[in-house]
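[audit] Reproducing an earlier prediction to check determinism. Same input, same settings, fresh worker. If the tokens differ from the archived copy the diff job will pick it up downstream; this log only records the rerun itself.
[audit] input (193 residues):
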Amino acid sequence: MVDCIFECIFCGELTTHERLMAKIRILPVCDECYARMGRVPDLRRRESNVVVTARDLQGQITDVTRLHNLLTTAGLNMERNGLYGDVSDLEVKYMGIGDDSTTPALADTTLGNETFRKARTSQSKPADGAVLYTQYVAPAEAVGAIEEMGWFAGAAAGAGADTGIMIARVLYTRTKTNLESLQIERTDTFAEA
């Protein structure tokens, strides 16, 4: 038996794990994240992570929060339908913010209470099998209570609340002021185990 030190792939916490050498392949997930998930995710499937960076008016970082979002059934079905040929527009176009703190569920198709929506700021392909979506929320935007965020894709995704297919949702609690901006980065990674 050996103690292994690793960084949790969801929260970034350094932790140790006791395992048998060469007999068990471990997924680097801390106990707290494992307990929240209730199971270890299959790495052959798609996973996503979110990093929210808050900056003051001088551009100085005041807070960094790392989260793991929930991929919705509607979003996964949209991808399936795209591979099948039923859907041609899979593009993530908008990010929404809301003030409902209800736990995300696979069946979610909208935010609990969407209060702000903005077209995606940028996107890139930082590595094989990865897509990075970046959203900038200016100081004057989305001022007030933030409890949830969601990403919207497809031909029906538009500037109006609850439009498009919500592919992912995550809880994030912050009372945003007009003295700060947010940079929200969401990465989809597709990889074999």
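[audit] rerun output stored. Observation attached for the diff report: Confidence is low (pLDDT under 50) at residues 18-27, 38-45.
[audit] end
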